[in-house]
Amino acid sequence: MTKLIKSGAYSADAFTPVADDAALPEGAVIVSLARFEKDREHLLERNTPIGVRLKSDENPERLGDAVNRLSLVALEFPKFRDGRAFSWARILRTRLNFTGEIRAVGDFLYDQVNYQHRTGFDAWEVPDNFTIEMFNRALAEMTNVYQPSADGKPTIRDLRAAR
Q1: Are 149 and 115 in contact, with CB atoms under 8 Å apart?
Q2: What average pLDDT does the segment 68-97 reach?
Q3: Which of 23, 43, 74, 116 has the fewest beta carbons under 10 Å from its own?
Q4: Nearest to residue 114, comparing CAs of 83, 135, 84, 90?
Q5: Minimal CA–CA distance to 99: which of 58, 71, 138?
Q6: Which is it for strands 29-32 and 101-106: parallel, antiparallel or unpaired?
Q7: Which residues pair with 53 in a beta bridge?
Q8: What confidence tens digit (pLDDT) does each residue in 34-62 have?
Q9: 129-161: per-residue pLDDT in tens?
Q10: Which of 138, 101, 83 is closest to 11 using CA atoms?
C-alpha cells in the first residue's frame, strides 16, 4: 500500500491508474506513455485531468506539445540506483516548462527526496512506513548545495563568489 505526499502532507489521490487495455473511467486518470500515444486525441478531448506515467527509459519529450495539457507526469524509479527520473523531472520543468504535478513513484530512498524536490518533483508515492516527519526532515537536511538544479537555489560556489 502506498500513500501520497503533496505540499508536505498526506493527500488523497484524485487520479485513477488505468491499465492499457482497460476502459477509461470518469474523472482524472493516469495512463502509460504507450496508452497516451495510442489514444492521445481521445484522452485530450475528454476534458478531465490526465496524467501520464513514464518508465525510467521513456523521455518526457515524447509527450510533445501535449505536455502542458497534462495535469500530472508520474516518473518511475524502478530501482533506487536508477536516477534517470531526476533528469526527466528537470527537463520537464526547465526545457518543457511543465507546470503540473511531477510525482515520484517506485523505489527511491529517503536520501533522494531532497534532490527529487530540487529537480522538480512536488508529489511522492511513499510506502506506509514513510512518515510526514521523515519527509519534512529529508527536505530540510541539506541547507547548502553543490549542484545547480531546477529550483534555482544558489550553489556553494555561487555563495562563495558573492562574498
Answers
A1: yes
A2: 94
A3: 23
A4: 135
A5: 71
A6: unpaired
A7: 32, 74
A8: 999 999 999 999 989 999 999 999 999 99
A9: 999 999 999 988 878 777 777 888 888 788 888
A10: 101
Q: 3-state SS of the chain? A: CEEEEECCEEECCCCEECCCCCCCCCCCEEEEHHHHHHHHHHHHHCCCCEEEEECCCCCHHHHHHHHHHCCEEEEEECCCCCCHHHHHHHHHHHHCCCCCEEEEEECCCHHHHHHHHHHCCCEEEEECCCCHHHHHHHHHCCCCECCCCCCCCCEHHHHHHCC
Residue 1: pLDDT above 60? no
Residue that has been written with the C-alpha cell 476502459 in this structure: 23
- For residues 66-98, one letter each, b for 16 or more C-beta atoms within 10 angstroms of the residue's C-beta and e for the rest, the string is bbeebbbbbbbbeeeeebbbbebbbbbbeebeb
